[in-house]
Amino acid sequence: MTEQTSESEKHPPEAGTTGGGREPLTIFMHWCKGCGICIDLCPHQVFTADRDGKPLITSPEKCTQCAICWLHCPDLAIISNEK
Ligand code: SF4
Ligand code: SF4
pTM to 2 decimals? Predict the structure, then answer.
């Protein structure tokens, strides 16, 4: 009797990320009030709103580090991971 382990069990997707590499930003969700400013102002549609209106980084590869989101967040809930 042999136990087989599938590839997905050996290498599960990384928790808390959208997959595929390093996130361009860190969002402190406990500071975010879900105002949606960052989602509306991002020129490259990096974010998608979750059910509370808080930003999920769904297209990290599109982020140009333009700084608009973190400069306009009223709660200082976004920081860059690259600057
Ligand atoms: S830094 Fe600019 S491109 Fe990147 S998520 Fe923020 S607003 Fe969008
Ligand atoms: S601008 Fe700041 S407080 Fe508003 S949704 Fe984005 S991260 Fe949250």
Answer: 0.79
Ligand having the closest approach to the CA of 46: 1
CATH of 19-80, one of 3.40.50.300, 3.40.50.1820, 1.20.210.10, 3.30.70.20: 3.30.70.20
Burial class (CB in 10 A: 0-12, 13-18, 19+), 62: middle
Three-class SS state of 7: helix
Q: Is 48 in the pocket of ligand 1 (CB under 6 A)?
A: no
Instruction: Specify the pLDDT at position 22.
Output: 81
